[in-house]
Amino acid sequence: MTNSIEGIWVGNAIQSLFGKNISIPILIEFKENTEKGIAIMDIAEFEFKNVKKEDKWILDLQVMNSNDAFVLMNYKNKDTKLSQFGSITFKIDDEKGRLDGYFTGYGPESNGLVYGAMILTKSESDKK
Range of 114's domain? Predict the structure, then answer.
């Protein structure tokens, strides 16, 4: 894994759900020298119809491929009863401390294909 994605990243996952654009706050953390990470999606403000009321979704991340410019990872919900999985590709911008990417996968609320964008910045405490 490229060292430039290690640390804590914050931003939003932006997608369309039932014809309405939504922006979900997200925090992603990658530990040093590992191919795994975790994502926490803050869904407390959303009134979903098909999934029980929760404050957050926790996703396991697995880096599949990376170089100095891009990283490809797969994700799945830690709760095995919740069908949520997919892939994310990020472009790494070390100078700006940003990860800009797109995701596609299966969503538990839509019970179908989901896709959208993620824009993340490196946490101030992790900037060097």
Answer: 3-126
